Amino acid sequence: MSKYTIKEFDEFRNITYYKNKSESDDNPIMIYIGKRKNNKLFLRVIFKYLGDDWLFVDSLSVSVDGKIYGPFTGKFERDHSSGRVWEWIDISVNKVGYELLNKIFTSQRSVIRFDGSKYYRDQKIDSNNKRLIKEMIYAYRDLGGKDIN
Predict the structure, then answer these.
(1) Which of 22, 33, 75, 25 has its CA nearest to residue 49?
(2) Biggest distance spanned by C-alpha atoms of the chain
(3) Regarding predicted confidence, which is higher, 4 or 56?
């Protein structure tokens, strides 16, 4: 186990999940690691909009030091509570995503644009979120994960 993570076992899926022990629900990017019974690792990322107004997000793009990546599309989930809404997508990290995550944590400035059916919101990826991304990439490698090709 990595010094950055906490471990949780899902007995129904027979998967051990590793999450950053310092993770906050307020971060627009959250990475987690899964390890199957056969010891095969996988990396996933959640992109999350959190705000007061619904966007009905259907895509997102990321600006890393002025270079735009995306748009990335998929099935976004939605929920709300106590006057707050959140919309998120949980995706498997492929080569493009792995390279993007590495660029984000070394960037000077990174911003996610959540595009909805009528509106959009930009969320800056702050230095704390970048640190958490970096820690989870290191944890993935510490657990035996290889660069994703």
Answers:
(1) 25
(2) 45
(3) 56
